[in-house]
Specification:
By secondary structure, the protein is of the alpha+beta class. The protein contains three helices and five strands, in the order αβββααββ. The chain has helices spanning 6-11, 34-44, 50-61; strands at 12-15, 20-23, 29-30, 84-85, 92-93. α2 (34-44) runs antiparallel to α3. The protein starts with 5 loop residues before the first helix and ends with a strand. Bound molecules: zinc ion (ZN). Residues 23, 25-26, 28, 43-44 line the site of zinc ion. The site of zinc ion has 6 residues, from α2.
Length: 94
């Protein structure tokens, strides 16, 4: 796994428990592999230049991710960590 660079730390969050990559710009879980490249190009190409997107794709490629569509929903009694992305401050609130 690569050490996150500032671009990565600012724009994505890796949830190691659920093995998903979360976009901190809008809070969506990102599909792995080709999905990461396509996601940032389609959704955020205006605010991310190509070198930033490349860093995000490289980071995502270094992780063991599963497709967000295949994540099981936690049971009501299980402890849950909720990540809320505030689009104004872009701070992570857990
Ligand atoms: Zn996004």
């Amino acid at each position: 796994m690569l050490e996150p660079n500032p671009i990565v730390a600012e724009h994505v969050l890796h949830d190691a428990h659920y093995k998903v990559l979360i976009c901190l710009i809008c809070g969506h879980a990102i599909k792995s592999d080709v999905g990461i490249k396509r996601y940032f190009k389609d959704a955020h190409s205006r605010m991310l230049d190509i070198s930033s997107r490349k860093a995000l794709v490289e980071y995502g490629g270094s992780l063991s991710l599963i497709d967000p569509d295949h994540i099981s929903i936690p049971s009501p009694n299980s402890p849950v960590c909720i990540v809320v992305v505030d689009n104004n401050s872009r701070e992570r609130k857990v």
